[in-house]
């Protein structure tokens, strides 16, 4: 049994990426301990680049991020779910990644990362930017690999994803952790 942390980064209610995350969670909960954190309603300030976390192992900014970073540290698996904005990750996802900087100095348990993403556009290149962004973060983490990805394009309005066959891909990916 693995400890799986799913971080949903859409700020929209009934978002397609959150529905995708919940479907992944349906599969993952069969054999694992799973927690889904939505960044909706969370107070997450920008990193100020002070690098105090390198010495103190925690961020000097007091908001919801420190609790999320603690959960990231304890997880065996991290799953990011994000809408694709301008061919990249959502702004709050990037901010959360920046604020997870204390993990570099204090360590982390997770060795596996998954990426779930949705977009209005459906071209093959639509996913390239967010994929590159998560790969760059993972490259900075020793021993961590990108284990799987599900991209669903062509979903614009909330709940457009509900009859998409890739929901089953997310379920099976979660089930096979």
**Major beta sheet summary:** 5 strands, parallel
CATH superfamily: Flavodoxin domain
Helix content: 25-40%
Shape: globular
Query: Given this structure, which CATH class is correct?
Result: Alpha Beta
Arithmetic mean pLDDT: 96
Provide an overview of this structure.
The chain is of the alpha/beta class. It has helices at 16-28, 53-56, 65-74, 91-99, 102-106, 128-139, 166-175, and strands at residues 3-8, 33-38, 77-83, 112-118, 145-152. The chain has a single domain, classed as 3-Layer(aba) Sandwich (Rossmann fold), CATH 3.40.50. Helix content is 36%, strand content 19%. Helix 6 (128-139) links the parallel strand 4 (112-118) and strand 5. The longest helix has 13 residues, at 16-28. The mean pLDDT is 96.
Topology:
Elements: E1 3-8, H1 16-28, E2 33-38, H2 53-56, H3 65-74, E3 77-83, H4 91-99, H5 102-106, E4 112-118, H6 128-139, E5 145-152, H7 166-175
Parallel strand pairs: 1-2, 1-3, 3-4, 4-5
Helix pairs in contact: 1-7
